[in-house]
């Protein structure tokens, strides 16, 4: 941690900062320049997390040097973690296809979708039973009945299931069905929920909030890991920008940045990012080439009858061709980073 | 709702859209232009909320015409609602000062703060017992003990208290203490929590998420109001932008826009927006002149010893002078809109 | 300037950085921590502006400590500069009203506007002759004829005139008419144009680009000042965000931040920021209370007949009442900062 | 164009809008709903570009239906345009590699770079002689001497050259050297410059401004095309967001969106977007898979000695391996869209 003092900082103000650092057991380095004095706190910065240096007289700016996470940091597992979701793997050397409907709506819709995505190469089934919706008047998911349908999909296809958890009180029930718990973008900083899934045995798919930085994403993962659950898959699903043609702008650089900073795998959800099915193929291929460990795709047997997010659902009939293109790109990039 | 058809839409595709509108009980108007056909769904658009028009063949774009909320819409109470928080009022003709520490930390800190802000003119005390923090290693609030301290502050000063609720399971306990439930920016789209506070009898202070639009803020308020609780105070606390000098950029236009669209009052939190105490005075005066119904200010007897957000806390000693300036600006603008 | 070395930086890499700093005549301070080595370059950082430290092996991050401008820095004139535009002043203790039509369109429109804004208290007339328009099909200003109309407005009202310059080749001609040269938001980083107005004798009104940081705004002002022209008025006109209700979001914090960093005055243009006339009053009052040195307002005798930006033009008939409200707020805040 | 009238619009206000549409020679369709009246202007919307409907009493909102450009619209050339830059092609079926140093600095640096990128497969050489720099104290390019070096590079390698033009007054001189004129991101809305390059015979590479929408990019291209020069290559180089890890966020969706809307080819500049060399490979591969028609890459024989943007320059030694990876991905996606 570096503390840049104001040009007019007094010696007493400087001394107070130095003492605070020493009192907390760190070593203080001081560099007196012509224009500014800079103080470095050498040692474990984490100890200082609750010290309000920026409110101390004479302090102009605090510059963190170390990254504020431990369990999810790259150093913990430099070769990258592989997460097991039922029979499927997510991690280095894999390109995991997660697919399924936005919401589970009917038995037929769910089963047809599950069989088709499995046959085309998906190894994890996605499907929402509890849906967070901007409008209280929109379809909110089938709830319990949706979970039952997911059980039936698993039974028939053998695919492990990832489904979203909105409420800690549903965790027990959902955990009976799910092979992976999804934390949606809107709950990325619902720290209580993070803490509770951190105490589960199941892997967690953690979506980046659409207005959260990469560092905040990793800090939310740290909440889960700190609780003892380090089976975490990150998911980039786009961030909000001024561009109106798409719902969000996928941050492809985040894939490489995350891999430099963390051992956790990261997948991409182009369906929610674009909000439009016609962009999903190219965004998916781009994501694979840019280093994604997997893709999460929304499909529907008949998008115009979907009860949620129909505009972004890929028609089921196109999924097999889609998967073939994905496989070609994956092959083209699989020797990088080896 | 308007549906712009693609230039190459077939008559069958147009007919399918027309039928879907009719089937749902609305009237369909059609305008056939040289380049495009446009279909208007005339009637209660809300009925169509779950219809995936954008996924229908031939449809290029869906343009909503009506605003998607009812209970919080301006028309419900054109003169604006006044919300009662204990003995304090928030609404037209008021300029409510809400102040207190970010977190309740010690008995002395809490009581000294509460007395001082009351003496300077604040009519509601703010103070956090449960704190959402980006880092799992940061101070997370005193919890239960914090609530006890708030009770003591109320007893001694008579000020009503607003405090944040993070978890629906704490609602009962917090409701014994609080006069107003705060939903933080990170929980603005925690729809389950919104639904639960919508079933309470207490007023709710709903903060705008730092990446949420004005319409989304009103939709979240609609979740609460739909549950039966229309005692809602909105709070603008800044949105994320590319500008690094401040933590967020306060959206002053939102104050007028909200008043045009909704009957709910809106207050401004400049402390969290700026993340720096030195900007709070001017942002507060600006907010009052721009039409805020109140201000929510973080203070601390000694900001450099604060356990959370010290950098943005106004030293308690400055609060009285601050309140005087606020009163002057309020006086200067109080005759507008009459 | 601080250089954070990578955890695995070698001694040779560290030595290379140290030597580069010494070779350039600065002193290098080194702080060897448990996790990182940090090197400080003590002295005039400006000398190092063209050194690619970030591309040197072993360097993780470069952190500038000093602000990269000199002529526009606060230290040059701590009490703040006052800029003289014809008979009008812009600076500390003033609240300058700049008003007029977006474009000069006809003799009547221009003269009626000029007289009315002067009578209501405006001391500088704005009016565009050369207009930058997003569409090549939109009205591009009257050009030469517009300049002639501005001359006539000056003659009749005595008001000094600010008008936009788009092309350095027009500078001579525009300088015969204008009392202040406007650099529009889209040209804030047209460095050639900045350099040329830096060689003029006339004051410059420099608008912040809608996607530029405060620091970039000051660097653009530095281009002008470095050329010898320090008669610069900054203008905040909103930055782009994800919020669709307004065209841009005014950054009120920028007013105070600019005053902390620079001696230049700063005015606010709420008309272009909002893109809607109905928000101009409240944004203007907010700006004055938040510390603006002036306002720049678009008016039109009949906005629905305006050839450019009619939606944001205040009807001329409302301007006098507007100015009265502005004066009241100004009075309420004039004793701050004294 | 659709005009949504306010709920309280009077018949006279509605009639005025209808008349204005008729007077301009378009047909007006009217749809009277329970809550709103909506008026459609059927015909060539372009005629109405200067009509201030939004300022007319009773009008709530204007919704454009047609795209506001003609020459660059997809319909003009549905199969997509191919642009010839010297001996190189940019367009459908191509994957054009444009590479070279940010700035031309010395004869050796320029020639070594030019030979190396040609040998690795680049078919266009990039190199700046006139550099737009945020700081007036930074290296501004070699100017004339830089152009001479580019001539020598062309002579020795046979590569066509793209270089940036900042000032219309340099156009004649630059056109003697360049095979393609680059308009940088900061000049994307320098409409005068656009108009002047629109009158040249040379192809233009037009970079998207870092805060401009896709529609604005196409409107700037329209300025050039309207002047008679339709040899335009678009370039996506990232947009500004709140994420601090990279300088800008590449908008990969823009590639497909542009191809849906326009016949112009689009290339990607990952170097400026990331601002960091370590992200360039993966962003490039992603861009190719996502549909880019080419890449524009900054290289340097020794990035740590670069006079501008060293941090983002790929070491020349890595370029050949880079090009091999690019070719593999290109091959994997080349059958899409056929």
Features:
4-stranded antiparallel β-sheet, elongated
Task: Tell me about this structure.
The structure is a homotetramer of 338-residue chains. Chain A is α/β, with parallel strands linked by helices. In chain A, 31% of the residues lie in helices and 19% in strands. Chain A is built from ten helices and 15 strands. In chain A, the strands form three sheets. In chain A, strands 13-12-11-10-9-8-7-14-15 form a nine-stranded parallel beta sheet. In chain A, a hairpin with a 2-residue loop joins strand 5 and strand 6. Chain A is elongated and about 75 Å long. The two termini of chain A are 34 Å apart. The mean pLDDT of chain A is 95. Chains in contact: A-B, A-C, A-D, B-C, B-D, C-D. Chains C and D meet through helix 5 and helix 6 of C and helix 5 and helix 6 of D.
Topology diagram in text:
The structure is a homotetramer of 338-residue chains.
Chain A lengths: L1 E4 L5 H13 L3 E6 L4 E6 L16 E5 L19 E3 L2 E3 L5 E5 L6 H13 L4 E3 L17 H14 L3 E4 L6 H7 L2 E4 L7 H7 L6 E4 L6 H13 L5 E5 L16 H9 L4 E3 L1 H5 L5 H10 L4 E7 L13 E2 L3 H15 L5
């Amino acid at each position: 941690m570096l503390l840049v003092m104001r040009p007019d900082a007094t010696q007493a103000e400087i001394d107070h900062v130095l003492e605070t650092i020493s009192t907390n057991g760190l070593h203080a380095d001081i560099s007196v320049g012509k224009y500014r004095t800079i103080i470095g706190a050498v040692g474990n910065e984490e100890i200082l997390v609750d010290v309000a240096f920026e409110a101390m007289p004479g302090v102009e700016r605090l510059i963190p040097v170390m990254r504020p996470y431990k369990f999810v940091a790259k150093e913990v597992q430099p070769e990258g973690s592989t997460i097991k979701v039922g029979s499927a793997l997510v991690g280095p050397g894999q390109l995991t296809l997660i697919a399924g409907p936005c919401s589970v709506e009917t038995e037929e819709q769910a089963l047809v979708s599950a069989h088709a995505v499995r046959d085309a190469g998906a190894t994890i089934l996605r499907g929402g039973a509890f849906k967070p919706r901007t409008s209280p008047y929109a379809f909110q998911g089938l709830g319990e009945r949706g979970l039952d349908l997911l059980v039936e999909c698993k039974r028939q296809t053998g695919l492990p299931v990832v489904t979203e958890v909105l409420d800690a009180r549903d965790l027990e029930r959902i955990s009976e069905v799910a092979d992976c718990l999804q934390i949606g973008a809107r709950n990325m900083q619902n720290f209580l929920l993070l803490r509770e899934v951190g105490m589960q045995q199941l892997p967690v798919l953690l979506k980046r909030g659409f207005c959260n930085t990469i560092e905040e994403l990793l800090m939310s993962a740290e909440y889960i890991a700190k609780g003892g659950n380090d089976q975490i898959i990150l998911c980039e699903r786009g961030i909000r920008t001024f561009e109106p043609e798409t719902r969000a702008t996928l941050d492809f650089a985040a894939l490489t940045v995350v891999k430099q900073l963390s051992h956790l795998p990261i997948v991409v959800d182009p369906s929610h990012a674009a909000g439009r099915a016609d962009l999903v193929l190219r965004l998916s291929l781009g994501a694979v080439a840019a280093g994604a460990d997997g893709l999460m795709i929304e499909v529907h047997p008949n998008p115009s009858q979907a009860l949620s997010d129909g505009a972004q659902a890929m028609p089921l009939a196109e999924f097999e061709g889609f998967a073939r293109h994905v496989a070609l790109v994956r092959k083209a990039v699989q020797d990088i980073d080896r």
